[in-house]
């Protein structure tokens, strides 16, 4: 998954304002409390970050 695809999927799942906020401020348990942005910047695979967001916010399978 590319970063561009990640951004598009977060907007589709959460809306543009909420997506940006979640990526920058929500601390993911799967990444030791890092935000999605911090995890990606630290080198975490974008798809794993996306899947962690999906799990924490119960994103429907149709949007994953």
Overall description:
By secondary structure, the chain is mainly alpha-helical. It contains four helices and two strands; from the N terminus they run H-H-E-E-H-H. The protein has helices at about 5-15, 15-25, 35-40, 45-55, and strands at about 25-30, 35. It has a two-stranded antiparallel ribbon with strand order 1-2. Helix 1 (about 5-15) packs across helix 2 (about 15-25). It is globular, with a radius of gyration of 10 Å. The mean pLDDT is about 95.
- SSE string, helices as H and strands as E: HHEEHH
Shape: globular
Kindly state the number of beta strands.
Answer: 2
Distance between the termini: 11 Å
Number of helical elements: 4
Class from helix and strand fractions: mainly alpha
Q: Proportion of β residues?
A: 5-15%
User: Mean pLDDT, nearest integer?
Assistant: 95
- Which residues sit in consecutive blocks of at least 5 with pLDDT less than 50? none
Helices, strands, pairings?
Elements: H1 3-14, H2 16-25, E1 27-28, E2 34-35, H3 36-41, H4 46-57
Helix pairs in contact: 1-2
Summed up, what is this model?
With 64 residues, the chain is mostly helical. 62% of the residues lie in helices and 6% in strands.
Pick out its properties.
single chain; 64 residues; mainly alpha; two-stranded antiparallel ribbon; 62% helix; 6% strand; globular
